[in-house]
Amino acid sequence: MTEVAAPVLADANVRQMLSPFGLDIEYTRAEGNALHYTDAEGRERRVVDYACGFGSLMLGHNNPEIAQRAKEILDSQIPVHTQLARHSHTNDLAIALNKIIQRELNTDEPYFALFGNSGAEAVEIAIKHAEYDRLERAKDLLAGVAANIDTARTAVASGAAQVSADAYGQAGVAAGTGFDELAAEIERRNEAAAGTQPLFLTIEGSFHGKLASSIQLTHNEMFRTPFKSLSAQARFVPADQPDALAKIVSDERVPVLDLVTDDGTVTVVERDFPVFGAFFLEPIRGEAGIRPLSAEFARTIQEVSAELGCPVVSDEIQSGSGRSGAFFAASHIGLRGDYIILAKSLAGGISKTGVVLVREGRYQHGFETIHSSTFGKDSISSLIALKVVELLEADGGQAYRAAEERGNKLRSALEAVRDDFPDVVKEVRGAGLMLGLEFHDQSEASSEVIREQTQHGMIGFAVAGYLLRNHGIRTFTTASALHTFRFEPSIYVSDEDIAQLETALRAVAGVLRRQDEEGFGGA
Q1: What is the pTM of this model?
Q2: Which of 5, 17, 133, 385 is 20 to 30 A from 511, comparing alpha carbons?
């Protein structure tokens, strides 16, 4: 009887996309900074992993200390699900993260923790909390206006004050029509303003996830456009362009009218309705091509957000947990977010968790009663994350020093390739073990194969397949910068691994320089 192949019911399209380039490999073993697979001859092949779970494996594949801790947790039969009960492990993790916040971000203000299952879910939590906060700000503003209108009405009725000559015109009613008509028009306008849909600010090239709300903050139109109608929209700000930010804020401004009674006169003043829910940013924009945010623009964002009254959300899902050479990449640029989001490496590459840390001055305590997540505070992921923090903090932060030292070594190798192939390699960017190497655009390449691969958006897969097949290197381009390859290995990447990568990249650069028709032809 002929054996029928199992149907492909999961990731079928992805497999079809990877297969022509020899990337549809099933890996069978992983440790440290390496993956292993079995080739057609039955031999085990080692691959140096520079993708490392898109930044999730700061401490490597199957870190033995984390794996041992996971076994101990399971063997202890600790309750996993105890909703509506005391969660000491989760609280311990929040306390541990707060100690790092105090040290690196130079603040004594505590941050409250909201837990989810992934980075994208954590972004969703942050969006929800920011909207909850925005509505509270709007309610306070409108309540203040209502109180001021009542004060003005009483003063006018008693003869203690008169409406200024300009007030009626500012409100768009005929002069002298009476206070009640003036107040009614202001209330009508303010009610219309209160119906304004919320907006979020973020930076061009940003990536904050692919769920219903988080996808609206992800700049790549291929991911975002099909789902644009599902949630609140974002305005994307060009990086390091404060004038563009100011224009966006000005264009989206929605005023409400208020009455102020002072020294016997009632005047109309404009106040800004809270349109913006939050400003989301990544200290290092990973999917934009590994682009660190400048300290100057970070300060501008904080100043503008303070004026708007909206929180700054620092998305450290990819850049955090030590990858930049500090626990928080934001610490390098003096940025202290009102919210901080962590995921990926926080769970050690074994468990799954995400957390939103909200500083006390912005935290809405009522939010906890209307938001929950079944796995959001489970004991297993909390205890594993505690172990990760312990390992990162051990020996006075040796892991951070390793990320910086290994990152410098890796960066030197990438820059050596750039220096020898300036016609092929455009730039090296990043910090610590979050680095990117950008090739020059090959859309007008003399090689028909390379040109067409580029024009069809497949050159990244072609190069990745070449690196894997010929050099045992695994890496990919970033999602929104298809000429930039990411290098986010663990702290255990060795000198030999780095030398292997440099040799491989020199070979790629040689193919591109020669415009070799056969170089990236596929598997």
Answers
A1: 0.95
A2: 17
